[in-house]
Amino acid sequence: QEMELHCVGCGVAIQTEDREKLGYAPPQALERETVICQRCHRIKHYNEASTVTLGDDDFVRILNSIGNTKSLVVQVVDIFDFNGSWLRGLPRFVGGNPILLVGNKVDLLPKNVNRNRLVNWMRKSAADLGLKPLDVVLVSARKGEGIDRLVAAMNEHRKGRDIYIVGVTNVGKSSLINRLLKQFGESEMDITTSQFPGTTLDVIEIPLDTTSSLFDTPGIVNRDQLVHKVAPQELKLIMPDKPIKPRVYQLNAEQTLFVGGLARIDFVKGERQPFVFYLSNHLNVHRTKLAKADELYAKHKGELLAPPGREAAEKIVWDTFTFKVPSGTHDIVISGLGWIALHGKGANVNVHVPKGVAVGLRHSLI
Ligand code: GDP
Fold first, then answer.
1. Closest-lying ligand 1 atom to the alpha carbon of residue 236
2. Which residue segments constitute the domains of the chain, with CATH numbers given?
């Protein structure tokens, strides 16, 4: 007789067939005395006990229940982590409900960044991912910038309906909710928390008027986010906390720059030109010769080339993106990290990042 195994973390029935499905554990995990599913293992490892992974049953239930309402959906993204902030399949799940896209953390941008270009890029990137937002609004939940415009846009587009705020963790959704609470005048408001129907997840309800409310949905973890490749204490190094100071490197072909141990940029071919880095001011950029880069990394990963620390560095599986950057001004965008502006006569550039992290090219924001 077969005994069904259950995860000691969440109680789900263990299966070893499909790593994308609930309850997956690698076959060798069954040899242990206690079996833990991959999801719980990750939660334990990454210390994300209060969050759920994308594609979880609960999460799908929430999105589907939004699909059954007549509402305005507000999707919050981190402008430094557009792809990592993405909720795959959102338009499909929320049915015909309109979506307002909010780009948070605008306070971190240097002054010379053109906000309209950023909005246009967000619009285009959203379209590439299958989303046509009603509007794109830039805000800073931390500084309050753009909140008035967001409130105006929400009121204009909701047409008396409820609002659902959605977003992956770390985009600043909680900070934004707190801002909105202040804006709407929290003293008069009767905030309630309850469980989303059919899930174990909490929702915060903020009444907007006598017939409609704003709902804050639970944050969802996108496992591909770069922030999950580093230890919690290293997070503050990669997430910028002050306006970014651009850093300029004059590079010759066949030189390589390491961004900590999180990204490696190889300038393979092209004339000598500036590479301008827009990253957290706390991240170290290390220059070397392309021919020496492998050796340098093998020797110094997790130490000179950190974050991540040694243990996490050992686990990284690398992915390479190859770009033929045209002449003129272009940005190579590394989701979760920032971007590198090039304005030379064209360059062949290879970018190495942990697998799952998105890297793309856009017209420069300057
Ligand atoms: P949540 O997981 O989406 O609820 O995000 P939090 O509100 O907890 O914020 C995640 C991180 O982003 C925290 O370190 C915040 O301090 C930071 N953060 C949130 N909003 C902003 C913002 O507008 N600007 C900046 N610079 N940081 C922000």
1. 14
2. 1-46 (no CATH), 52-221 (3.40.50.300), 229-363 (no CATH)
157 SS3 class: helix
Closest to 180 (Cα-Cα) out of 212, 198, 154: 154
The whole-angstrom separation of Cα 312 and Cα 164 is 36
Return the number of other C-beta atoms located less than 10 Å from residue 355's C-beta. 11
CA 76/CA 138 separation, integer angstroms: 10
Q: Please report which helix (H) or strand (E) contains residue 162, including its range.
A: strand 162-166
Q: Which residues pair with 73 in a beta bridge?
A: 99, 164
- Ligand 1 binding pocket includes 360 (Cβ within 6 Å): no
pLDDT exceeds cutoff 90 at 64: no
Residue 308 has pLDDT above 60, yes or no: yes
- The secondary structure of 254-289 as a DSSP string is TEEEEETTTEEEEEEESSSEEEEEEE-TTS-EEEEE
Three-state SS at 342: strand
CA of 100 to the centre of ligand 1 (A): 19
ipTM of the predicted assembly exceeds 0.90: yes
Closest ligand 1 atom, residue 240 Cα: 26
pLDDT, position 231 = 85
Alpha helices in 136-226 (DSSP H): 147-158, 173-184
